[in-house]
């Protein structure tokens, strides 16, 4: 009996090959032929799953979004259980930072997509943005903290959330170029949160 092929799993395997190329050489090096060679399969098979490079890039970005949420969720879920808004905000900010080689690769791929967006002058309309999700989550936690009088009431939670998300994005880049280590990045986040949250 012929082995049943898991088509979604095969797409993910092909995408992993794309990640390795993009992380090392940027998206400009990603072609159907290059991905096929990296994956160790025929170009015809790659085209069976992704008829065009654009379709492959769209799928790969959605996979990045899924994997980033998955990895961050492992840090965020325990923090949510505490009911401590500061702990949750910290988890959101540190959860998106690379803490191992897998995280570094995924972060490098995000930057590769970002570089293309910068050249184009905008993000692709069908490419789900990561930062707005982070900003919304942070805003909600800061509003809760204001109700609990743990964050000063005069602060604008949306503006503070935007600032924190921007800081986290900068730290991601900093870690990738080894300007900061993961612990240094965490210390910077803690320093900012100590200013934002009142002591209890």
Order of helices and strands: HHHHHHHHH
Main sheet record: none
Structural class: mainly alpha
- Rg over alpha carbons: 19 Å
Portion of residues in beta strands equals under 5%
Helix content: over 70%
The CATH homologous superfamily of the domain at 60-196: Tetracycline Repressor, domain 2
Write down the overall geometry: elongated
CATH T-level topology of the domain at 60-196: Tetracycline Repressor, domain 2
Distance between the termini: 65 Å
Written overview of the protein:
The chain has 200 residues and is mostly helical. It has a domain at 60-196: Orthogonal Bundle (Tetracycline Repressor, domain 2), CATH 1.10.357. It has nine helices and no strands.
Summarize the helices and strands and which ones pair or pack:
Blueprint: H1 7-25, H2 32-39, H3 43-49, H4 53-82, H5 85-95, H6 101-120, H7 131-147, H8 157-176, H9 182-196
Helix pairs in contact: 1-2, 1-4, 1-6, 2-3, 4-5, 4-6, 5-7, 5-9, 6-8, 7-8, 8-9
Write a concise keyword list for the protein shown above.
9 helices, Tetracycline Repressor, domain 2, mainly alpha, 74% helix, 0% strand, 200 residues, single chain
Short overview:
The protein is mainly alpha-helical and 200 residues long.
């Amino acid at each position: 009996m012929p082995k049943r092929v898991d088509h979604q799993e095969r797409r993910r395997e092909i995408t992993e090959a794309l990640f390795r190329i993009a992380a090392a050489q940027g998206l400009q090096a990603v072609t159907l032929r290059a991905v096929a060679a990296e994956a160790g399969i025929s170009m015809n098979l790659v085209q069976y799953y992704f008829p065009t490079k654009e379709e492959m890039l769209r799928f790969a970005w959605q996979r990045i979004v899924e994997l980033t949420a998955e990895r961050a969720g492992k840090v965020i879920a325990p923090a949510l259980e505490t009911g401590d808004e500061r702990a949750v905000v910290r988890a959101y900010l540190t959860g998106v930072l690379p803490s191992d080689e897998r995280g570094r690769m995924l972060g490098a791929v995000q930057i590769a997509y970002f570089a293309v967006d910068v050249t184009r002058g905008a993000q692709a309309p069908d490419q789900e943005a990561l930062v707005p999700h982070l900003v919304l989550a942070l805003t909600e936690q800061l509003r809760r903290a204001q109700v609990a009088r743990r964050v000063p009431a005069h602060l604008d939670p949306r503006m503070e959330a935007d600032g924190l998300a921007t800081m986290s994005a900068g730290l991601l880049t900093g870690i990738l170029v080894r300007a900061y280590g993961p612990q240094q990045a965490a210390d910077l986040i803690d320093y900012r949160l100590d200013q934002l949250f009142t002591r209890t």
